[in-house]
Structures are given as structure tokens and as C-alpha cells.
Automatic annotation (TrEMBL):
This is Lrp/AsnC family leucine-responsive transcriptional regulator. It holds the Pfam family AsnC_trans_reg. Keywords: DNA-binding, Transcription, Transcription regulation. InterPro entries: AsnC-type_HTH_dom, Dimeric_a/b-barrel, Tscrpt_reg_AsnC-like, Tscrpt_reg_AsnC/Lrp_C, Tscrpt_reg_HTH_AsnC-type_CS, WH-like_DNA-bd_sf, WH_DNA-bd_sf. It comes from Roseateles saccharophilus. It comes from the Bacteria. Residues 2-63 form the HTH asnC-type domain.
């Protein structure tokens, strides 16, 4: 389990993963060496999986995003999953319960680009896509509310 100090550290990292160790230590009320030790333990335990960046697809020319629900044809589950993993347009993919097996988010340059991406699945899956108009809530870290 993580304690309240770990939660404070995770919240500080969620706000700025590039914050200097000195700033993180101040935010959680520990010395830099003690903070470094906590970071190492959180990484070892798999709580922190990676320090990463958040790139805006629009800045790279991807003016369109789509949510695609994917239903593999019988016997094609592994093939569909491999094609999704190989799809450079795929930002993320969830394997889900229900009528569809996968829900993925694609970054695209145009409707034609969407057609090209979906064509790569057409022989092994049915797809249903929706164009993203806005993203009022972006992916965020799980709740880090302090207990008590």
C-alpha cells in the first residue's frame, strides 16, 4: 500500500513529472535523499511505471481523432489485436466486454486517413467509428485523495 506521503509525491509528479527532486522534497516535507528513496521504492513496486511526456497530436498535424469500436470476426481475435498494435494511428486501445472486443482512439490527419486506417481491419473485423468533437476530461491519474 501507499501512504499519505506517497500520495503527495505522486500528486506532485502528476502535476509536473520533471520537477526537480528538491521541489518534490519540499512539496512532501521530506529531505531530497528521503524523497529519492521513496521514488525508487515506488518504481520498484510498479506504482510508477514511467516518466513520460504529453504531446499534443494537433501540434503534429493530426487534426482529427476518432473512437473506434472493433468487433473481430470469429477466430480473428489475435489477428485483430496484432493489427491494432501495429497501427501507428492508435493512441490507446482497451479490450472490453460487450458486443465489441476493442475500443481504440486514433489520431488522424483527415477523414480519408480514417478510411485508410479502418481498411487495415476490414478483412478481419467490423468497426464502428465516432469522430471526437472535444475532450472535456483528459486521461488522468487515479484518485490520489489523502486518506483520513
Amino acid at each position: 500500500m501507499i501512504d499519505d506521503t506517497d500520495r503527495l509525491l505522486l500528486a506532485a509528479l502528476a502535476a509536473d513529472a520533471r520537477a526537480p527532486l528538491k521541489d518534490l522534497a519540499e512539496a512532501i516535507g521530506l529531505s531530497p535523499p528521503a524523497t529519492s528513496e521513496r521514488l525508487a521504492r515506488l518504481k520498484e513496486r510498479g506504482v510508477i511505471r514511467a516518466f513520460t511526456i504529453d504531446i499534443d497530436p494537433l501540434a503534429l498535424g493530426f487534426t482529427l481523432q476518432a473512437i473506434v469500436r472493433v468487433r473481430p470476426m470469429p477466430g480473428a481475435l489475435a489477428q485483430v489485436q496484432q493489427r491494432i498494435e501495429d497501427m501507428p494511428e492508435a493512441l490507446e486501445c482497451d479490450k472490453v466486454t460487450g458486443d465489441d472486443c476493442y475500443v481504440l482512439r486514433l489520431a488522424l490527419r483527415s477523414i480519408e486517413h480514417l478510411d485508410q486506417a479502418l481498411d487495415r481491419l476490414a478483412d478481419c473485423a467490423q468497426t464502428s467509428s465516432s469522430i471526437v468533437k472535444a475532450q472535456p476530461l483528459r486521461r488522468r491519474v487515479p484518485m490520489l485523495k489523502l486518506v483520513g
